[in-house]
Every structure is written in structure tokens, then in C-alpha cells.
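Quick one, C-alpha cells below. Sequence please?
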């Protein structure tokens, strides 16, 4: 049986789902989550957490919030107040009404890379996977990793191949036997039929972007 790369409890996912949150690693910062809306009338925020454990979003102190790469941004200290389907609910100092909370929609929440826990052997932050070249076992170039998704049936690498078409490669030891971050490449052994025009697409289960930092651990 093929072995999935298991989720490490912290920190986060880089790239899964449907929202576009960029590369996940910008200027030494790792994307941990995004404000997706307001909750109630008292200024609470709905957050999409990209951490393996959603509560890890609140364990790094003040996060850098910015809307676009290159923005100076602002520091936010979040306090968890609840949970809803696919999101966590949080309050932030200085935000006390729904109008102000709605104005924060779209803010991305970052942490300095050096504040993240060190990786163990065969673990990878998703931000490091984005942009890797993808080669086949015979050395032929397949494409480049665009994003890392989890549609509910396991992690998938979205790989852009020749012609601009995306294929979804299971992020397992069998399908991805080699990940070489320092060389900027990984080796893929795609399942039969995956590269065929109109090949199988992943089943999407009401997911959104798993944005940018999740650590993965290989298993035997």
C-alpha cells in the first residue's frame, strides 16, 4: 500500500484548496492563515488556519498581517474565541464591531521563518515545495509545483506541465519518492493515467486554500 506523508501537528499547510494565497514564503515570512470574514457583531474574525493543528495559529504571539506581498503590514495579537466549520474564530485588540472586522477580510497572517520549529528528517514545509521542478524517474522534466492541496482524500501536489495544464500528484512516498529542496527538484512516479489528457481530477470537498507552511513527515 502506498504511504501518505503524514501531517506534522505544526505548523501549517502551504497551498491546498481553492483560494490563491501566493507562494507562502515571502521575505523570510511563512503564511500561517488568512482572514476570510467577520463573525457576529462584536468584531470577531473568521480565520482560515493553514496550520496542521488550527490552534497552532495562536501559539506564535503577534503575527504580521498584510494584504499583499511587499506591504509593510501591521502586527496583530489574536485570541481564539471559538470554531466553526473549516475556520477558527478569533478576537483582536482594537476591533470591536463588524464593520471593522469586515475591513480586515483578505489579510494574510505571517510569522518569521526562524520562529517555526525545526524540521525532522523527511519533513518539508509546503512553502519550500512551491516552485520545485518536477522530474520523472528517467530524468525527463514533467513540470513545476504550483501548490499543495488537501481536498479531503490526502495531500496533492498541483504540478503545471507543458501547455499550462495542471495535474494533481499524490504527495506520497510512492508517487514522490525523492524531494530534494536544496537542489530545487523532486522526482515523480505518477499513477497510471495521471498524465493522460483529461486524466483523473481530485475530488474537491468544499475546501479552500491550505496556504503556505505545513510540515509533512514521510512514513514507511
Amino acid at each position: 500500500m502506498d504511504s501518505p506523508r503524514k501531517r506534522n501537528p505544526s505548523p501549517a499547510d502551504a497551498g491546498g484548496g481553492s483560494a490563491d494565497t501566493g507562494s507562502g514564503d515571502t521575505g523570510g515570512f511563512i503564511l500561517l492563515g488568512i482572514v476570510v470574514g467577520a463573525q457576529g457583531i462584536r468584531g470577531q474574525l473568521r480565520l482560515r488556519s493553514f496550520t496542521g493543528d488550527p490552534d497552532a495559529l495562536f501559539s506564535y504571539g503577534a503575527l504580521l498581517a498584510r494584504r499583499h506581498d511587499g506591504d509593510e503590514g501591521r502586527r496583530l495579537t489574536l485570541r481564539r474565541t471559538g470554531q466553526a466549520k473549516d475556520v477558527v474564530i478569533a478576537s483582536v485588540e482594537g476591533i470591536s464591531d463588524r464593520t471593522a472586522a469586515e475591513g480586515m477580510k483578505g489579510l494574510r497572517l505571517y510569522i518569521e521563518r526562524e520562529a517555526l520549529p525545526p524540521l525532522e528528517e523527511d519533513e518539508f514545509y509546503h512553502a519550500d515545495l512551491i516552485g520545485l521542478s518536477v522530474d520523472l524517474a528517467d530524468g525527463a522534466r514533467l513540470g513545476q509545483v504550483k501548490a499543495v492541496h488537501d481536498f479531503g482524500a490526502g495531500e496533492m501536489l498541483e504540478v503545471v506541465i507543458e501547455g499550462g495544464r495542471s495535474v494533481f500528484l499524490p504527495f506520497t512516498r510512492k508517487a514522490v519518492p525523492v524531494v530534494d529542496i536544496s537542489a530545487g527538484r523532486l522526482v515523480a512516479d505518477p499513477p497510471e493515467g495521471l498524465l493522460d489528457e483529461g486524466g483523473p481530477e481530485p475530488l474537491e470537498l468544499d475546501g479552500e486554500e491550505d496556504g503556505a507552511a505545513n510540515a509533512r513527515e514521510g512514513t514507511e
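Confidence is low (pLDDT under 50) at residues 6-23, 200-220. The domain at 122-217 is CATH 2.30.30.240 (SH3 type barrels.).
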